[in-house]
Amino acid sequence: MTRKKPVTAILFFVLPFGLLFIAFYLAPIGYAIKQSLYKVTRTGTFGPAHEVFGGFEQYQRVFQNGPFWESIGRVLLFGVVQVPVMLGLALLLALLLDSGLVKGRAFFRLAFFVPYAVPGVVAAIMWGFLYSPNLSPFTAVTKTWDLLSADLVLWAMANVVTWVYVGYNMLIIYSALLAIPQEVYEAARLDGAGPVRTAWSIKIPLVMPAIVLTTVFSIIGTLQLLAEPQVFRTFSSAVSSTYTPNLTVYSTSSIPNFNLAAAFSVVLALATCLLSFAFLKVTQRGDDK
Predict the structure, then answer these.
(1) CB 173 within 8 A of CB 179
(2) Where do the domains of the chain lie, and which CATH numbers do they carry?
(3) Burial class (CB in 10 A: 0-12, 13-18, 19+), 158
(4) Confidence of residue 1 (pLDDT cuts 50, 70, 90)
């Protein structure tokens, strides 16, 4: 006698997720793609606006938009410097918590994570005041280095992002460290490996999937940078309305030009997908060797 597949039970568990996934993920993506294929025309100078099919006209404008591609180059530079620093600090903190050298690990684990609980806008406002020469309590630093100048404001924002997300990434890596069997450490000690050797040869290779995961998250977050530059526009004239790709999308939609903003969003999403996929392929190729 063959057992019937529990189709009803499967649908019961899958259907709620499927409906939410379609409603809040696939449907907005489809709507953005649809909007990007239209344009607004007017009859005469002050005539009523009409939305008509424009094909790839909006995408042509995107690829001819110099400030947009400059903003992508800016966030790529941001990511090349900020992401390794942030994940390096997260890995170091996770290894310290797992080493047994730190007393009160529960307290420090919570303390490292607390900045992530601060909303990004609030964190940017707080750091913006700390960077302002006339408002900061650290006037000796802010008057020597103008952290809101065109040369340094990008790295001032990188410090904010690092402060917020180090603890979040540390918890992911630390959780991976806790999953390593204790027998592996005992074998390392029997072979004469010290704490540093154990961390370098055993812990880091075994938590590499977690490091790859946090790197992918960081790549996506870098290209979606919005809250920090949006807030820093009120502190620094060096941050323009096209300083980052997401800020360009936001500013374009505020004109309003929703069709061009949708095209910017689609191109940015594709760029994010390609970069993340390329990074995963590179890391997988390294693991296969």
Answers:
(1) no
(2) 58-288 (1.10.3720.10)
(3) buried
(4) very low
